[in-house]
Amino acid sequence: MKNRTHAPVDFDTSVASTITSHDAGYIEKDLEQIVGLQTDAPLKRAIIPFGGIRMVESSCHAYNRELDPELKKIFTEYRKTHNQGVFDVYTPDILKCRKSGILTGLPDAYGRGRIIGDYRRVALYGIEFLRKDKFAQFTSLQEKTGKR
Q1: Closest alpha carbon to 11 in 73, 129, 21, 90
Q2: Within 13 Å, how many C-alpha atoms sit on residue 35's CB side?
Q3: Greater confidence, 120 or 87?
Q4: Of 6, 10, 39, 127, which residue is most buried, by most CB within 10 angstroms?
């Protein structure tokens, strides 16, 4: 469920998402076959600052939320992000080529889905359903384009 602006119902602005960062959340615990959701509550999204803290902060501001100052401090003063690590290996010449557009495909940042994760579909629908649905979409597209 999202509000009228399609913003997330909730997201955690104080915990960096990892495989063990949140307690298991459930919709109907006794009926569920998959243990836990992406976060500790249904429809709550997690933040993933390992690709870059600025994008997380921008996402928070887009939804009128504030990133936890302590988390921001950790990811700006103490922990190198993946993005910083990537840029650290670029030589000055590579950076100039990238900036001028001679080289493409060298990202400044990562897509929104990697920063505010949306992995609830697995918990809600299950892998088998999603796999079959994706195959049906592929088959339908092949039929529409005459490539089947």
Answers
A1: 21
A2: 4
A3: 87
A4: 39
Can you tell me the mean pLDDT for 15-27?
82
Q: Are 12 and 39 in contact (CB under 8 A)?
A: yes
Helical (H) or strand (E) element with 124: helix 120-125
The pLDDT tens digits of the residues spanning 73-94 come to 998 889 887 777 878 888 888 8
Specify the pLDDT at position 119.
55
How many residues in total does the chain contain? 148
CB 23 within 8 A of CB 40: yes
The torsion angle over the Cα atoms of residues 46, 48, 53 and 59, rounded to 10 degrees, is: -40
Q: Which residue do the tokens 């670029």 mark?
A: 90
Give me the mean pLDDT over the 131-142 stretch: 88
Over residues 108-136, mean pLDDT? 67
d(CA 106, CA 63) in angstroms, rounded, equals: 28
Q: Could you count the other beta carbons within 10 Å of the beta carbon of residue 100?
A: 8
